[in-house]
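Researcher: Sequence of PTS sugar transporter subunit IIA follows. Predict its structure.
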Amino acid sequence: MKKILVATHGRMASGIQSSIKILTGLQDQLAVIDAYVDNCDLQAEVQSFIEQTHGQPCIILTDIVGGSVAQAVSMLSANQKNVFLVSGVNLPIVLSLLINTEPLTAARIDQLISECQVQRVTSEVKVPSENMKHEDFFAS
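Model: Prediction complete. Tokens:
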């Protein structure tokens, strides 16, 4: 089983887990920490996750680069070659990591990150003319 943790400020992590459940049913393969919403000990939970990997590759995704959650994870995972830290988590990267079948390496993670970047999307609305055929309206 893949070792993936999403740790965020507030309930963003559990929201991602909920979306993963709806989209794939793989929510049990995703550990989450919703920091600062209850009496959870962020450092203890992160440390426990890392220990449970038993030196196997794992990835911890946080919400904000340089934020307090990312800082805590960074301190706890320092000098541990098996732990990959990614900040700026989004649903596409979590989905990609969960369905990835290749070994978890820095190069593979970087590739998935580049494929899952936020993108600006444009769209054009075609206004049908009287001479336009039905097939022409739906052609790209």
